[in-house]
Write a structure and sequence with these properties.
This protein is α+β, with helices and mostly antiparallel strands. It has helices at 57-70, 85-92, 150-163, 194-199, 211-217, 237-248, 259-265, 323-336, 351-354, and strands at 47-51, 79-81, 102-107, 113-126, 129-141, 170-174, 183-191, 229-231, 253-255, 273-279, 286-294, 297-299, 307-308, 310-313, 317-318, 341-345, 360-371. Bound molecules: 2-oxopentadecyl-CoA and the ligand CCOC(=O)c1cnc2ccc(OC)cc2c1SCCC#N. 2-oxopentadecyl-CoA (NHW) is lined by residues 3-6, 70-72, 134, 136-141, 146-152, 155, 158-159, 162, 168-170, 172-174, 176, 178, 371-372.
Length: 389
Protein backbone atom coordinates (compact mmCIF):
# COMPACT_ATOMS: atom_id res chain seq x y z
CA UNK A 1 0.00 0.00 0.00
CA UNK A 2 1.04 3.64 -0.34
CA UNK A 3 2.89 4.93 2.72
CA UNK A 4 3.06 8.56 1.61
CA UNK A 5 4.92 9.60 4.78
CA UNK A 6 6.99 6.51 5.52
CA UNK A 7 8.22 6.33 1.91
CA UNK A 8 10.00 9.64 2.58
CA UNK A 9 11.79 8.34 5.68
CA UNK A 10 15.21 6.62 6.11
CA UNK A 11 13.71 3.25 6.98
CA UNK A 12 13.82 -0.08 5.20
CA UNK A 13 11.38 0.22 2.32
CA UNK A 14 9.26 -2.73 1.18
CA UNK A 15 10.57 -2.25 -2.41
CA UNK A 16 14.16 -2.76 -1.13
CA UNK A 17 13.40 -5.96 0.76
CA UNK A 18 14.94 -8.29 -1.81
CA UNK A 19 17.91 -6.03 -2.59
CA UNK A 20 20.66 -7.79 -0.65
CA UNK A 21 23.31 -5.44 -2.08
CA UNK A 22 22.18 -2.69 0.30
CA UNK A 23 24.69 -2.44 3.17
CA UNK A 24 23.77 -3.05 6.79
CA UNK A 25 23.95 0.05 9.01
CA UNK A 26 22.83 3.69 8.90
CA UNK A 27 20.70 4.53 5.85
CA UNK A 28 21.54 8.27 5.93
CA UNK A 29 24.69 9.93 7.32
CA UNK A 30 24.37 12.43 10.21
CA UNK A 31 23.60 16.04 9.26
CA UNK A 32 25.95 18.77 10.51
CA UNK A 33 24.21 20.18 13.60
CA UNK A 34 24.22 23.67 12.02
CA UNK A 35 22.08 22.27 9.20
CA UNK A 36 19.44 20.64 11.45
CA UNK A 37 16.21 22.64 11.29
CA UNK A 38 16.40 24.98 14.30
CA UNK A 39 12.72 25.82 14.60
CA UNK A 40 9.79 23.41 15.18
CA UNK A 41 7.74 22.08 12.26
CA UNK A 42 4.59 23.96 11.36
CA UNK A 43 1.38 22.78 12.96
CA UNK A 44 -2.11 23.58 11.64
CA UNK A 45 -3.04 27.10 12.76
CA UNK A 46 -5.18 26.24 15.78
CA UNK A 47 -2.41 24.25 17.50
CA UNK A 48 0.92 24.90 19.25
CA UNK A 49 3.83 22.79 20.45
CA UNK A 50 4.45 22.37 24.16
CA UNK A 51 7.28 20.60 25.98
CA UNK A 52 5.66 18.46 28.69
CA UNK A 53 7.43 18.56 32.05
CA UNK A 54 6.45 15.13 33.41
CA UNK A 55 7.73 16.17 36.85
CA UNK A 56 4.88 18.68 36.99
CA UNK A 57 1.94 16.96 38.65
CA UNK A 58 -0.48 19.03 36.58
CA UNK A 59 1.17 18.28 33.22
CA UNK A 60 1.65 14.61 34.08
CA UNK A 61 -2.07 14.40 34.84
CA UNK A 62 -2.92 16.02 31.47
CA UNK A 63 -0.72 13.48 29.68
CA UNK A 64 -2.22 10.65 31.74
CA UNK A 65 -5.76 11.75 30.81
CA UNK A 66 -4.95 12.13 27.11
CA UNK A 67 -3.46 8.61 26.96
CA UNK A 68 -6.09 7.08 29.23
CA UNK A 69 -8.83 8.22 26.83
CA UNK A 70 -7.07 8.14 23.44
CA UNK A 71 -4.14 5.68 23.48
CA UNK A 72 -3.95 2.13 22.05
CA UNK A 73 -7.02 -0.13 21.98
CA UNK A 74 -7.14 -3.76 20.83
CA UNK A 75 -8.85 -4.52 17.53
CA UNK A 76 -12.12 -5.42 19.26
CA UNK A 77 -12.07 -2.23 21.40
CA UNK A 78 -12.34 -4.41 24.51
CA UNK A 79 -9.33 -2.79 26.24
CA UNK A 80 -7.38 0.48 26.19
CA UNK A 81 -3.94 0.78 27.80
CA UNK A 82 -4.13 2.83 30.98
CA UNK A 83 -0.52 3.66 31.87
CA UNK A 84 -0.39 5.18 35.37
CA UNK A 85 1.18 8.57 36.13
CA UNK A 86 3.94 6.89 38.17
CA UNK A 87 4.59 4.52 35.24
CA UNK A 88 4.85 7.43 32.78
CA UNK A 89 7.34 9.24 35.03
CA UNK A 90 9.40 6.03 35.30
CA UNK A 91 9.24 5.39 31.55
CA UNK A 92 10.25 8.95 30.64
CA UNK A 93 12.96 9.75 33.23
CA UNK A 94 15.74 7.20 32.65
CA UNK A 95 19.38 8.27 33.14
CA UNK A 96 20.27 10.98 30.58
CA UNK A 97 16.69 11.82 29.51
CA UNK A 98 15.89 15.03 27.60
CA UNK A 99 12.87 17.06 28.71
CA UNK A 100 12.64 18.46 25.17
CA UNK A 101 11.84 14.97 23.87
CA UNK A 102 8.54 14.90 25.79
CA UNK A 103 6.46 16.70 23.16
CA UNK A 104 2.82 17.78 23.35
CA UNK A 105 0.41 19.67 21.10
CA UNK A 106 -2.13 22.01 22.64
CA UNK A 107 -5.14 23.87 21.18
CA UNK A 108 -3.96 27.51 21.28
CA UNK A 109 -7.28 28.88 22.60
CA UNK A 110 -8.27 26.28 25.21
CA UNK A 111 -4.71 25.00 26.00
CA UNK A 112 -6.18 21.48 25.82
CA UNK A 113 -3.55 18.78 25.26
CA UNK A 114 -4.55 16.92 22.09
CA UNK A 115 -1.41 15.04 20.99
CA UNK A 116 1.78 13.61 22.45
CA UNK A 117 4.97 11.82 21.41
CA UNK A 118 8.11 10.98 23.41
CA UNK A 119 11.70 9.87 23.04
CA UNK A 120 14.21 8.65 25.60
CA UNK A 121 17.92 7.98 24.94
CA UNK A 122 19.11 4.36 25.07
CA UNK A 123 22.29 2.52 24.20
CA UNK A 124 21.23 -0.27 21.86
CA UNK A 125 23.55 -2.92 20.45
CA UNK A 126 22.76 -4.12 16.92
CA UNK A 127 25.00 -7.14 16.25
CA UNK A 128 28.42 -5.81 17.33
CA UNK A 129 27.62 -2.09 17.04
CA UNK A 130 26.53 -0.13 20.13
CA UNK A 131 24.49 2.89 19.05
CA UNK A 132 22.89 5.62 21.15
CA UNK A 133 19.32 5.75 19.87
CA UNK A 134 16.02 7.37 20.76
CA UNK A 135 13.31 4.99 21.91
CA UNK A 136 10.12 6.61 20.63
CA UNK A 137 6.85 5.87 22.38
CA UNK A 138 3.45 7.18 23.52
CA UNK A 139 2.55 8.62 20.09
CA UNK A 140 -1.06 9.68 20.57
CA UNK A 141 -3.48 11.96 18.70
CA UNK A 142 -6.86 12.71 20.31
CA UNK A 143 -9.65 10.64 18.77
CA UNK A 144 -11.31 13.78 17.46
CA UNK A 145 -8.18 14.76 15.46
CA UNK A 146 -7.43 11.48 13.72
CA UNK A 147 -6.71 11.06 9.97
CA UNK A 148 -5.54 14.66 9.58
CA UNK A 149 -1.88 13.67 8.94
CA UNK A 150 -0.88 14.99 12.40
CA UNK A 151 1.16 11.88 13.19
CA UNK A 152 3.80 12.54 10.51
CA UNK A 153 4.29 16.06 11.92
CA UNK A 154 4.70 14.63 15.45
CA UNK A 155 7.22 12.11 14.15
CA UNK A 156 9.19 14.74 12.19
CA UNK A 157 9.29 17.01 15.24
CA UNK A 158 10.61 14.34 17.61
CA UNK A 159 13.12 13.37 14.89
CA UNK A 160 14.28 16.99 14.66
CA UNK A 161 14.73 17.30 18.44
CA UNK A 162 16.62 13.99 18.55
CA UNK A 163 18.89 15.18 15.71
CA UNK A 164 19.66 18.34 17.72
CA UNK A 165 21.24 16.03 20.33
CA UNK A 166 23.40 14.43 17.60
CA UNK A 167 21.49 11.16 17.70
CA UNK A 168 20.55 9.65 14.31
CA UNK A 169 18.87 6.31 15.02
CA UNK A 170 15.68 5.27 16.83
CA UNK A 171 13.85 2.14 17.96
CA UNK A 172 10.09 1.81 18.23
CA UNK A 173 7.28 -0.73 18.15
CA UNK A 174 3.77 -0.69 16.73
CA UNK A 175 0.81 -2.99 16.41
CA UNK A 176 0.48 -1.82 12.80
CA UNK A 177 2.72 -2.92 9.91
CA UNK A 178 4.86 -0.03 8.62
CA UNK A 179 7.99 -0.01 6.44
CA UNK A 180 9.72 -2.23 7.62
CA UNK A 181 9.70 -4.43 10.75
CA UNK A 182 13.01 -5.92 11.91
CA UNK A 183 10.91 -8.60 13.56
CA UNK A 184 7.30 -9.32 14.46
CA UNK A 185 6.51 -10.74 17.90
CA UNK A 186 3.50 -12.57 19.25
CA UNK A 187 1.82 -11.69 22.55
CA UNK A 188 1.07 -14.60 24.91
CA UNK A 189 -1.27 -14.44 27.89
CA UNK A 190 -1.33 -16.49 31.10
CA UNK A 191 -4.68 -16.28 32.92
CA UNK A 192 -4.33 -15.60 36.66
CA UNK A 193 -7.99 -14.67 37.19
CA UNK A 194 -9.75 -16.78 34.53
CA UNK A 195 -13.24 -15.98 35.79
CA UNK A 196 -12.72 -12.23 35.18
CA UNK A 197 -11.17 -12.83 31.73
CA UNK A 198 -14.20 -14.94 30.78
CA UNK A 199 -16.63 -12.38 32.28
CA UNK A 200 -15.14 -9.57 30.15
CA UNK A 201 -15.20 -11.76 27.05
CA UNK A 202 -11.46 -12.05 26.48
CA UNK A 203 -11.37 -15.80 27.24
CA UNK A 204 -14.08 -18.40 26.67
CA UNK A 205 -14.82 -21.58 28.60
CA UNK A 206 -13.13 -24.47 26.80
CA UNK A 207 -15.28 -27.31 25.39
CA UNK A 208 -16.39 -29.72 28.17
CA UNK A 209 -14.96 -27.22 30.73
CA UNK A 210 -16.87 -25.77 33.69
CA UNK A 211 -15.90 -22.49 35.35
CA UNK A 212 -14.66 -24.30 38.48
CA UNK A 213 -12.65 -26.76 36.37
CA UNK A 214 -11.13 -23.77 34.52
CA UNK A 215 -10.25 -21.97 37.77
CA UNK A 216 -8.58 -25.16 39.03
CA UNK A 217 -6.60 -25.48 35.76
CA UNK A 218 -5.02 -22.04 36.31
CA UNK A 219 -4.61 -22.33 40.11
CA UNK A 220 -1.13 -21.53 41.47
CA UNK A 221 0.61 -22.18 44.83
CA UNK A 222 0.26 -19.44 47.45
CA UNK A 223 4.00 -18.65 47.51
CA UNK A 224 7.15 -19.08 45.36
CA UNK A 225 8.74 -22.55 45.30
CA UNK A 226 12.40 -21.69 44.63
CA UNK A 227 14.56 -21.52 47.81
CA UNK A 228 16.19 -18.08 48.07
CA UNK A 229 13.58 -16.36 45.83
CA UNK A 230 13.12 -12.82 47.20
CA UNK A 231 12.37 -9.25 46.11
CA UNK A 232 15.30 -7.50 44.42
CA UNK A 233 16.95 -4.74 46.47
CA UNK A 234 19.30 -1.87 45.62
CA UNK A 235 22.27 -3.94 46.91
CA UNK A 236 21.58 -6.50 44.13
CA UNK A 237 22.23 -3.99 41.30
CA UNK A 238 25.87 -5.03 40.64
CA UNK A 239 25.11 -8.77 40.41
CA UNK A 240 21.86 -8.29 38.43
CA UNK A 241 23.72 -5.99 36.02
CA UNK A 242 26.40 -8.64 35.47
CA UNK A 243 23.75 -11.33 34.86
CA UNK A 244 21.73 -9.12 32.48
CA UNK A 245 24.68 -7.76 30.44
CA UNK A 246 26.02 -11.27 29.85
CA UNK A 247 22.61 -12.71 28.99
CA UNK A 248 21.68 -9.94 26.53
CA UNK A 249 24.87 -10.60 24.50
CA UNK A 250 23.06 -13.68 23.17
CA UNK A 251 20.68 -11.53 21.11
CA UNK A 252 21.13 -9.64 17.84
CA UNK A 253 19.37 -6.47 19.06
CA UNK A 254 19.45 -5.67 22.78
CA UNK A 255 20.01 -2.76 25.19
CA UNK A 256 23.48 -2.21 26.58
CA UNK A 257 22.57 -1.59 30.26
CA UNK A 258 25.01 -0.29 32.87
CA UNK A 259 24.43 -0.26 36.65
CA UNK A 260 22.64 3.12 36.52
CA UNK A 261 20.26 1.74 33.89
CA UNK A 262 19.60 -1.42 35.95
CA UNK A 263 18.96 0.73 39.04
CA UNK A 264 16.38 2.72 37.06
CA UNK A 265 14.74 -0.01 34.99
CA UNK A 266 14.83 -3.12 37.23
CA UNK A 267 14.91 -2.14 40.95
CA UNK A 268 11.30 -2.53 42.21
CA UNK A 269 9.07 0.58 42.11
CA UNK A 270 5.72 -0.01 43.75
CA UNK A 271 2.86 -0.30 41.27
CA UNK A 272 5.24 0.15 38.33
CA UNK A 273 7.92 -2.55 38.12
CA UNK A 274 8.65 -5.60 40.27
CA UNK A 275 11.76 -7.76 40.27
CA UNK A 276 12.92 -10.79 42.19
CA UNK A 277 16.28 -12.50 42.59
CA UNK A 278 17.29 -16.04 43.58
CA UNK A 279 20.03 -15.87 46.20
CA UNK A 280 21.94 -19.14 46.66
CA UNK A 281 21.50 -20.38 50.23
CA UNK A 282 25.10 -21.62 50.45
CA UNK A 283 27.14 -19.03 48.50
CA UNK A 284 24.70 -16.09 48.90
CA UNK A 285 25.39 -15.13 45.29
CA UNK A 286 22.52 -14.00 43.07
CA UNK A 287 22.15 -16.65 40.35
CA UNK A 288 18.85 -15.66 38.65
CA UNK A 289 16.35 -12.82 38.44
CA UNK A 290 12.94 -12.13 36.92
CA UNK A 291 10.98 -8.89 36.45
CA UNK A 292 7.62 -7.67 35.21
CA UNK A 293 5.99 -4.27 34.84
CA UNK A 294 2.45 -3.23 35.73
CA UNK A 295 0.38 -1.86 32.83
CA UNK A 296 -3.35 -1.82 33.60
CA UNK A 297 -5.97 -1.45 30.91
CA UNK A 298 -9.40 0.10 30.95
CA UNK A 299 -12.09 -2.46 30.13
CA UNK A 300 -14.32 -0.66 27.64
CA UNK A 301 -18.09 -0.67 28.05
CA UNK A 302 -18.45 -3.51 30.54
CA UNK A 303 -21.23 -3.24 33.17
CA UNK A 304 -19.30 -4.62 36.13
CA UNK A 305 -15.56 -4.55 35.26
CA UNK A 306 -13.68 -1.34 34.47
CA UNK A 307 -10.03 -2.19 35.07
CA UNK A 308 -7.77 -5.05 34.00
CA UNK A 309 -4.66 -5.60 36.15
CA UNK A 310 -2.00 -6.87 33.73
CA UNK A 311 1.64 -7.79 34.41
CA UNK A 312 4.08 -7.79 31.49
CA UNK A 313 7.20 -9.96 31.45
CA UNK A 314 10.24 -7.65 31.32
CA UNK A 315 13.82 -9.06 31.66
CA UNK A 316 14.46 -12.54 33.09
CA UNK A 317 17.81 -14.31 33.47
CA UNK A 318 18.12 -17.90 34.72
CA UNK A 319 21.62 -19.32 35.18
CA UNK A 320 21.06 -21.93 37.96
CA UNK A 321 17.26 -22.19 38.36
CA UNK A 322 15.40 -23.65 35.34
CA UNK A 323 13.75 -20.74 33.44
CA UNK A 324 10.37 -22.53 33.67
CA UNK A 325 10.64 -22.74 37.47
CA UNK A 326 11.77 -19.09 37.72
CA UNK A 327 8.86 -17.88 35.57
CA UNK A 328 6.41 -20.08 37.49
CA UNK A 329 7.49 -18.22 40.64
CA UNK A 330 6.92 -14.94 38.75
CA UNK A 331 3.36 -16.11 37.99
CA UNK A 332 2.88 -17.08 41.66
CA UNK A 333 3.90 -13.64 42.99
CA UNK A 334 1.93 -11.87 40.25
CA UNK A 335 -1.19 -13.78 41.33
CA UNK A 336 -0.41 -12.95 44.99
CA UNK A 337 -0.33 -9.26 43.91
CA UNK A 338 -3.81 -9.67 42.45
CA UNK A 339 -2.90 -9.38 38.74
CA UNK A 340 -5.59 -10.75 36.43
CA UNK A 341 -3.22 -11.78 33.61
CA UNK A 342 0.53 -12.17 32.99
CA UNK A 343 1.55 -11.22 29.46
CA UNK A 344 4.76 -12.07 27.60
CA UNK A 345 6.17 -11.69 24.11
CA UNK A 346 7.86 -14.60 22.32
CA UNK A 347 11.22 -12.76 22.52
CA UNK A 348 14.50 -13.92 24.09
CA UNK A 349 14.09 -17.44 25.59
CA UNK A 350 10.40 -16.96 26.38
CA UNK A 351 9.24 -19.63 23.88
CA UNK A 352 10.82 -22.15 26.28
CA UNK A 353 8.23 -21.58 28.99
CA UNK A 354 5.08 -20.20 27.34
CA UNK A 355 3.20 -23.41 26.55
CA UNK A 356 4.33 -25.36 29.64
CA UNK A 357 3.18 -22.54 31.97
CA UNK A 358 -0.26 -22.41 30.29
CA UNK A 359 0.16 -19.18 28.31
CA UNK A 360 -2.16 -18.90 25.32
CA UNK A 361 -1.23 -17.05 22.12
CA UNK A 362 -2.85 -13.62 21.66
CA UNK A 363 -4.29 -12.49 18.34
CA UNK A 364 -2.22 -9.27 18.32
CA UNK A 365 1.31 -8.90 16.99
CA UNK A 366 3.94 -6.39 18.03
CA UNK A 367 6.26 -5.22 15.24
CA UNK A 368 9.72 -3.82 16.09
CA UNK A 369 11.36 -1.08 14.01
CA UNK A 370 14.68 0.72 13.68
CA UNK A 371 14.85 4.21 12.19
CA UNK A 372 17.80 5.04 9.90
CA UNK A 373 19.44 1.65 10.39
CA UNK A 374 19.19 -1.23 7.91
CA UNK A 375 19.73 -4.83 8.93
CA UNK A 376 20.28 -7.52 6.28
CA UNK A 377 17.22 -9.65 6.99
CA UNK A 378 14.39 -9.88 9.48
CA UNK A 379 15.21 -11.39 12.85
CA UNK A 380 13.46 -14.29 14.52
CA UNK A 381 11.65 -12.94 17.58
CA UNK A 382 13.93 -15.12 19.74
CA UNK A 383 16.90 -13.09 18.43
CA UNK A 384 15.43 -9.95 19.97
CA UNK A 385 16.55 -8.91 23.46
CA UNK A 386 14.70 -5.58 23.69
CA UNK A 387 11.43 -4.98 25.57
CA UNK A 388 9.88 -1.52 25.01
CA UNK A 389 7.18 -0.27 27.40
C1 LIG B 1 16.57 9.73 14.60
C2 LIG B 1 15.27 9.82 15.52
C3 LIG B 1 13.99 9.38 14.79
C4 LIG B 1 12.76 9.48 15.78
C5 LIG B 1 11.47 9.03 15.07
C6 LIG B 1 11.47 7.54 14.78
C7 LIG B 1 10.13 7.08 14.18
C8 LIG B 1 9.00 7.04 15.26
C9 LIG B 1 7.66 6.62 14.67
C10 LIG B 1 6.52 6.63 15.72
C11 LIG B 1 6.62 5.47 16.67
C12 LIG B 1 5.48 5.48 17.70
C13 LIG B 1 5.61 4.28 18.62
C14 LIG B 1 4.55 4.24 19.68
O1 LIG B 1 4.08 5.26 20.17
C15 LIG B 1 4.00 2.87 20.13
S1 LIG B 1 2.69 2.37 18.91
C16 LIG B 1 1.29 3.23 19.56
C17 LIG B 1 0.84 4.35 18.61
N1 LIG B 1 -0.30 5.03 19.21
C18 LIG B 1 -1.56 4.57 19.12
O2 LIG B 1 -1.86 3.58 18.48
C19 LIG B 1 -2.59 5.37 19.92
C20 LIG B 1 -3.94 5.43 19.22
N2 LIG B 1 -3.81 5.94 17.87
C21 LIG B 1 -3.50 7.25 17.63
O3 LIG B 1 -3.31 8.06 18.51
C22 LIG B 1 -3.34 7.64 16.17
O4 LIG B 1 -4.02 6.70 15.37
C23 LIG B 1 -1.86 7.72 15.71
C24 LIG B 1 -1.20 8.89 16.41
C25 LIG B 1 -1.13 6.42 16.04
C26 LIG B 1 -1.83 7.94 14.19
O5 LIG B 1 -2.55 9.13 13.89
P1 LIG B 1 -3.76 9.08 12.82
O6 LIG B 1 -4.58 10.30 13.03
O7 LIG B 1 -4.41 7.74 12.91
O8 LIG B 1 -3.02 9.12 11.38
P2 LIG B 1 -2.47 10.43 10.63
O9 LIG B 1 -2.10 11.47 11.61
O10 LIG B 1 -3.47 10.81 9.58
O11 LIG B 1 -1.14 9.88 9.94
C27 LIG B 1 -1.18 8.71 9.13
C28 LIG B 1 0.24 8.28 8.96
O12 LIG B 1 0.76 7.88 10.24
C29 LIG B 1 1.24 6.53 10.14
N3 LIG B 1 1.03 5.83 11.42
C30 LIG B 1 -0.13 5.39 11.92
N4 LIG B 1 0.09 4.78 13.11
C31 LIG B 1 1.43 4.84 13.35
C32 LIG B 1 2.28 4.36 14.41
N5 LIG B 1 1.78 3.69 15.47
N6 LIG B 1 3.62 4.59 14.31
C33 LIG B 1 4.12 5.23 13.24
N7 LIG B 1 3.37 5.71 12.21
C34 LIG B 1 2.04 5.50 12.27
C35 LIG B 1 0.42 5.91 9.03
O13 LIG B 1 1.09 4.78 8.54
C36 LIG B 1 0.36 7.07 8.03
O14 LIG B 1 1.60 7.17 7.35
P3 LIG B 1 1.75 6.57 5.84
O15 LIG B 1 0.78 7.36 4.98
O16 LIG B 1 3.19 6.74 5.47
O17 LIG B 1 1.37 5.12 5.96
C1 LIG C 1 -6.02 -10.23 28.64
C2 LIG C 1 -4.90 -10.23 27.62
O1 LIG C 1 -4.89 -8.99 26.86
C3 LIG C 1 -4.29 -7.92 27.45
O2 LIG C 1 -3.73 -8.04 28.51
C4 LIG C 1 -4.42 -6.60 26.79
C5 LIG C 1 -4.79 -5.54 27.61
N1 LIG C 1 -4.94 -4.31 27.12
C6 LIG C 1 -4.71 -4.04 25.81
C7 LIG C 1 -4.86 -2.71 25.35
C8 LIG C 1 -4.61 -2.39 24.04
C9 LIG C 1 -4.21 -3.39 23.14
O3 LIG C 1 -3.99 -2.98 21.85
C10 LIG C 1 -3.21 -3.83 21.01
C11 LIG C 1 -4.04 -4.71 23.57
C12 LIG C 1 -4.31 -5.05 24.92
C13 LIG C 1 -4.17 -6.38 25.43
S1 LIG C 1 -3.61 -7.69 24.39
C14 LIG C 1 -2.01 -7.10 23.79
C15 LIG C 1 -1.11 -6.64 24.95
C16 LIG C 1 -0.55 -7.84 25.52
N2 LIG C 1 -0.16 -8.82 25.93
Amino acid sequence: QRHKFWETQPVGQFKDLRDTSLPEGPIEPPTPLSEVKQEPYNLPNLYEWVTCDMNSEETCLEVYNLLSNNYVEDDENMFRFNYSKEFLQWALHPPGYFKTWHIGVRVKSSKKLVAFITGIPAKIRVQNEIITMAEVNFLCVHKKLRSKRLAPVMIKEVTRRVHLENIWQAAYTAGVVLPTPITSCQYWHRSLNPKKLIDVGFSRLGPRMTMSRTMKLYKLPDSPLTPGFRKMELRDVPSVTRLLKTYLLEFVVAPDFDEMDVEHWIVPKEGVVDSFVVESQETHEVTDFCSFYSLPSSILGHPNHSNLKAAYSYYNVATKTPLIQLMNDALIVAKQMDFDVFNALDVMHNEGFLKELKFGPGDGKLHYYLYNYRIKSMLRSSELGLVLL
